[in-house]
Amino acid sequence: MTTAPSRNGPRRRWPSPRTTAWGFLAPVVVYLVAFYLYPLLRNLDLSLRDYTVRSFVRDDAAFVGLDNYARVVTSAAFAPALWNTLVFTALSLVFQYGIGLALAVFFHQHFRLSVSLRALFLVPWLLPLIVSASTWSWMLNSESGVVNSVLTAFGADPVNWLTSPRYSLLAVLVANVWIGIPFNLVLLYSGLRNIPPQLHEAAALDGAGGWQRFWRITMPLLRPVSAITLLLGLVYTLKVFDIIWIMTQGGPGNSSTTLATWSYELGFGSLLPRFGPAAAVGNLLIIIALFFGVIHILVQRRQEAA
Amino acid sequence: MNTRRRWWKTAVGIVLTALMLFPVYWMVNVSLTPRDRMRQTPPDWFPTSPTFEGYAAVLREQLPALGTSLLIGVCTAVLTVVVAAPAGFALAKLSPLGGGPLHFVLVIAQMIPSIIMAMGFYSVYLTVGGLDTWWGLVIADSTLAVPFGVLVFTAFMSAVPDEIIQAARIDGAGLWRTFRSVVLPASRNAVVTVSLFAFLWAWSDFVFANTLNGSGDVRPITLGIYRYIGNNDQDWNAIMATAVVASVPAAVLLVVAQRYVAAGVTAGAVKD
Questions:
Q1: Does the distance separating the beta carbons of B104 and A29 come in below 8 Å?
Q2: How far is CA B247 from the centre of its chain?
Q3: Cβ distance of B172 and A13 shorter than 8 Å
Q4: Which pLDDT tens digit goes with each residue over A47-61?
Q5: Domains of chain A (ranges, CATH numbers)
Q6: Could you tell me if B2 and B126 lie in one domain?
């Protein structure tokens, strides 16, 4: 670092910042290689071998190529897991975004206490997932849950939220939407703040009503932020594991199994771990997430260029 | 007329917030409900005869787990800042060769599901002996925060004026000196934001803990809750009391550092 030859004295301490910059980047590069790349490569290796508990410990499993992937994709559990992942992700996004946007518009009106109340809306996002998931589990409990107690008070039949295959996906969906609303609210609110208020004032002078202003001004100008919010939400929702695992473990049957919980169940859910197929499902999930992740980055780049 | 409408909005806002926070209220309510009143219908809507048995159980059984979580959270925050801050400086101010691709890699890294990382770590730790250790969890948990940390540091440090850096340079400070004595103090907010989130995510982690430390004695508080749920008698009074205690860092964070929280949410996603 100090050996770089230089004619003008004091500059010697700054030999070409573009190269010395790598001194500052070295820790994170080493970190990424050791703690991201290496585990992921091990995971890839797992998915290409035929592991049993014994061969896992002795590290001598046979190489089987794409057998695990073929087995996973043709398994009877694959279609339901993929379908549940799609439904869970799509409905989570629709409700998180819709409710988040409505709340952002509401809080954007600046009334008394609006700042403090908006801050309180962050709470679900900050709580440990196991706290949220266990609270919702108890609230949705068939016999003693407060939700069923309210339902019966209004004359409806109690619902087996977590123990009936018809409702289990809905139950975890409700909890996940609750957790995701704050994220959408914060991002969309910051987007609303960047819309010049003069536009609304001008439109109001021209006689546009609130509803019309929302659809003609707010929504089009919010499109870039909406795109980023939805794409990030999509990638995050594909990752969701904790809530489903804690509330239903993907059950009953596989009625609330997603690719994430299925992968975990194969690898760690039973006394007979199947690491090969588990890693294969995990890698399929990575491919799906990265596909949308790259779209997200491209959208963001284009917005920054514009 | 105008002020009356605003009051009306405040009222609606309070109702909406109350609805949103109802599960949090319910958690506290159940944590104070005695065991014999737990399964009655309808449930007690208010803790009319509160019990502190659940909290006593937390003190009796979960103190080591709370200590483990605290240790892991603090170490994760330190590790994250140490790795991420210099990288943020380089990306923000030194325009290194390959900085663009590195930025891309960091954004992508954030999107990898942690169960998949957990499986990879399990396989690695089995060979190097990292299972059921506190440092194993620190490393695994830090993967949740390091890419985010670099992005936040880059965003904040880009805002440090070039003139300050030039001035340090004229005064004869080397790059490292400039980073430590000028840029880092000027980005104190970034240090606070990154360490808060790194701590909170490590404190809240369930996936890595359950996968990598599932069987040993080094159990964080999230596993303490999970064990309670797995028990046959499912003592919800104790479960919810532990959940309340486990939520304390999040509550403290929101009260003490609210503006950093909002900064953290947006910094990872959109650049202003």
A1: no
A2: 11
A3: yes
A4: 998 877 677 777 777
A5: 78-273+291-305 (1.10.3720.10)
A6: no
